[in-house]
Amino acid sequence: MTTKVELVEVGPRDGLQNERKPLDVDTRVDLITRLVARGARRIEAVSFVRPDRVPQMAGAEEVMAKVPRDPEVSYIGLVLNRRGAERAARTSCTEVNIVVPVTDAFCLRNQNLTVEAMLDHASAASQVARDAGMRVSLTLAVAFGCPFSGPVSVDQVERVLARAAESRPDEIAFADTIGVGVPRQVRALAALAATDARIRKLRFHFHNTRNTGYANAVAAARLGPAGGAVPGRVVALDASVGGFGGCPFAPAATGNIATEDLAYLLRGEGVPLLGPGVPDLEGLARVGSWLGDRLGSPPQGLLVRAGDFTPATRAGDGSTTED
Question: Does 247 participate in catalysis according to the annotation?
Answer without folding.
Answer: yes
